[in-house]
Amino acid sequence: MSTLPKIAWIGLGIMGSPMSENLIKAGYQVTGFTLEQDKLDRLAAAGGTAAGSIAEAVKDADVVITMVPASPQVEAIAYGPDGILQNTRSGALLIDMSSITPQTSVDLAKAAKDKGIRVLDAPVSGGEAGAIEAVLSIMVGGEQTDFDTAKPILEALGKTIVLCGPHGSGQTVKAANQLIVAVNIQACAEAVVFLEKSGVDLKAALDVLNGGLAGSTVLTRKKDNFLGRDFKPGFRIDLHHKDMGIVTDAARNVGATLPVGAVVAQLVASLRAQGDGGLDHSALLRAVERLSGAQV
């Protein structure tokens, strides 16, 4: 019998499915629940166990990991008679890897403490590719002892794993991450349109730019999206719109001004309003093309 902790995984989407599979590959016993049957079938095919409900998934778990889209979904799966807090044993560790508001994480930790459940907020950066390759950056908020317990599990999912402070700190750092990523994608998109309209070999230009100070993980990951106009979602505009709302609201609460971030947040919102919310966030290129007179 394995001495590794038993894990319940709630939320098997674009990120959750490959992440849970990496834990299975690392030898963990994973029981999962999500709303889509095909995702449960995928988990079972990878060697995990599909549960019929949240309560069934978490009842024997030492560690519960959640990866759902936003604060309302976290609250829906955590609270109530059928939720995580009501059905998870006292002493278990809940690691929420969703990207939500810092206050939602603080409130969840407080409610869980009343049930004897420890909590870490541990949002990630790296997108679908990072999830598949287990090279995610994981920013964590919570207690040091709980972080130490969780670290071997997180090391099966990511490469850079850092405790950033108390509950909510991971979400605050993730909000800053999303601000940087959105502004970076926007700058890359504007450069792509500028280069193409100037008649430059786009692939050659992006290669040389990425080798200098203008280079970035964003450009490395999204270069092929730009070149091939391939906007299959790795991280959807809808979710980045949510995240830009989180960072602008959090910044307002602490008195930080984000002038460029505010503009990019509106550009993300406009792209979503034009029906592109289901596309990858590299589709910010489409917004720049429209503004530059292209029909897309």
Explain what the structure shows.
It is an enzyme of class 1 (oxidoreductase). InterPro entries: 6-PGluconate_DH-like_C_sf, 6PGD_dom2, 6PGDH_NADP-bd, HIBADH-like_NADP-bd, HIBADH-related, NAD(P)-bd_dom_sf, Tartro_sem_red. Pfam families: NAD_binding_11 (PF14833), NAD_binding_2 (PF03446). Residues 168-287 form the 3-hydroxyisobutyrate dehydrogenase-like NAD-binding domain. Its EC number is 1.1.1.60. Helix 9 (169-197) crosses helix 12 (237-254), helix 9 (169-197) crosses helix 13 and helix 10 packs antiparallel against helix 11 (217-228). Helix content is 54%, strand content 13%. Helix 1 links the parallel strand 1 and strand 2. The model has no long low-confidence stretch (mean pLDDT 97). The protein has helices at residues 16-25, 37-45, 54-58, 71-78, 84-87, 102-114, 127-133, 144-154, 169-197, 202-210, 217-228, 237-254, 259-276, 284-291; strands at 7-10, 30-33, 49-50, 63-66, 93-96, 118-121, 124-125, 136-141, 158-165. The chain has 14 helices and nine strands. By secondary structure, the chain is an alpha/beta fold. The radius of gyration is 20 Å and the shape is globular. The strands form two sheets. A six-stranded parallel sheet has the order 3-2-1-4-5-6, with helices on both faces. A three-stranded mixed sheet has the order 7-8-9. It has two domains: 6-166, Rossmann fold; 173-292, N-(1-d-carboxylethyl)-l-norvaline Dehydrogenase, domain 2.
Main beta-sheet annotation: 6 strands, parallel
The total number of structural domains is 2
* CATH homologous superfamily heading of the largest domain: NAD(P)-binding Rossmann-like Domain
Work out the helix count. 14
| Rg from Cα | 20 Å
The appropriate CATH architecture of the largest domain is 3-Layer(aba) Sandwich
Q: Could you please say which CATH topology of the largest domain applies here?
A: Rossmann fold
Oligomeric form: single chain
| Mean of all residue-level pLDDT scores | 97
Write down how many β-strands occur, each being a DSSP E stretch of 2 or more residues: 9
Describe the global form: globular
Strand order of the largest sheet: 3-2-1-4-5-6
- The poorly predicted ranges are none
Order of helices and strands: EHEHEHEHHEHEEHEHEHHHHHH
User: Strand-residue fraction?
Assistant: 5-15%
Task: Give the terminus-to-terminus CA distance.
Answer: 56 Å
Helix-and-strand structural type: alpha/beta
Name of the CATH class of the largest domain: Alpha Beta
Organism: Streptomyces violarus
EC number: 1.1.1.60
InterPro entries: 6-PGluconate_DH-like_C_sf (IPR008927), 6PGD_dom2 (IPR013328), 6PGDH_NADP-bd (IPR006115), HIBADH-like_NADP-bd (IPR029154), HIBADH-related (IPR015815), NAD(P)-bd_dom_sf (IPR036291), Tartro_sem_red (IPR006398)
Active site: 174
